[in-house]
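#structure-requests
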Amino acid sequence: MIIWLNGTFGAGKTTTAKELITLLPQSRIFDSEYVGYMLRHVLDSEPVQNFQDWRPWRQLVVATATQVLDYVGGTLVIPQTVLTHQYWQEIHAGFEHAAIPLRHIVLHADRTELTRRIESDPVETIARQWRLDHLDAYEAAQVWYREEAEIIDTTQLTPTQVAARIAAGTS
């Protein structure tokens, strides 16, 4: 199974993923950003705003996750923001084609809380403005998120509480 933790930057995806794998036996985090890092040196002649814009990233995330699950089984937790509906549809179709069960969960917080989290994050100071600049795209994605994902409002919850909710719904 794959549990895809979506939502914008500052929603708590990475922290929740770390908590979640302690609650689910045979689970591990698959950081799909490393697929993007791997492609950078190969596709640097194809400029994009985000490595997700490279079609090979979307296909390789599916292929890599499929191979990992075939090798070790269990559950992969993928904490990755996907704001472009077409990209999500491609990823979803890839997992469906591979017959891998997928839970798509969006971790949500209101804009004020997201801004507070982003601005107070001591680790992500370099990417702060980039993260803030994507709040409008996140709000626009709410239209399709509501139709295609479980939404958990993290505004008043700790990552431990969010992980417990997710784990409780995973069989």
